[in-house]
Amino acid sequence: MLYTSGSSGTPKGVLSTQRNRLTPVETGLVGVLGLSERDRLLWPLPLHHAMSQVVCVLGVTVTGASAMLLPRFSVRDVLGELRRPDAPFTLLGGVPTTYSALLDEVRGVAGALGAPALRGCISAGAPRGPPSARPSRRSAASPTWSITAAPRPARSP
């Protein structure tokens, strides 16, 4: 049973199986995103979020990728870590408000993101509308993939 705060509704308990948790790793993170042992994730989200469990715990464990967990989200800390030349991050986890705050900080400043190894951002939670999608592609030059908090379970053959 996964208890969710209800990012888009009322808090509830959601029945989840191991297959339900591993399917998005196989089909989305590995199959679409290409998550592998070469990836380094920067993770400013709490681990009790369903997306954190799927991406940062299971995805990293299954693929051999690595992750750095930040104690809490702050624009300054995330940008500071993304800009480190000694340990570049290839992926960033967040929710729409994470990316809105980061974009507000770097919007309009050429090269302000300063994260050349970043190849993508992973998002979950409330739907990400076109107003935030367009600036992120221009500002960060990184596509964003989204997973749901409780993906549909895979059917057995």
Explain how this protein is built.
The structure is a single chain. The chain has helices spanning 18-30, 50-63, 75-82, 96-106, 130-140, and strands at 2-4, 12-14, 40-43, 66-69, 91-94, 120-123, 144-146. 25% of the residues are buried. A five-stranded parallel β-sheet has the order 4-3-5-6-7, with helices on both faces. The radius of gyration is 15 Å and the shape is globular. Mean pLDDT is 77; it is low at 131-157. It has five helices and seven strands. It has one domain: 3-Layer(aba) Sandwich (Rossmann fold), CATH 3.40.50.980.
| CATH fold node name | Rossmann fold
Q: Label the overall shape.
A: globular
Q: Which whole number gives the mean pLDDT?
A: 77
Order of neighbouring strands in the sheet with most strands? 4-3-5-6-7
What topology does this entry show?
Elements: E1 2-4, E2 12-14, H1 18-30, E3 40-43, H2 50-63, E4 66-69, H3 75-82, E5 91-94, H4 96-106, E6 120-123, H5 130-140, E7 144-146
Parallel strand pairs: 3-4, 3-5, 5-6, 6-7
Antiparallel strand pairs: 1-2
Summarize this structure briefly:
The protein has helices at 18-30, 50-63, 75-82, 96-106, 130-140; strands at 2-4, 12-14, 40-43, 66-69, 91-94, 120-123, 144-146. By secondary structure, the protein is α/β, with parallel strands linked by helices.
Q: Any descriptors?
A:
36% helix, 157 residues, Rossmann fold, two-stranded antiparallel ribbon, 16% strand, 5 helices, single chain, alpha/beta, five-stranded parallel sheet, 7 strands
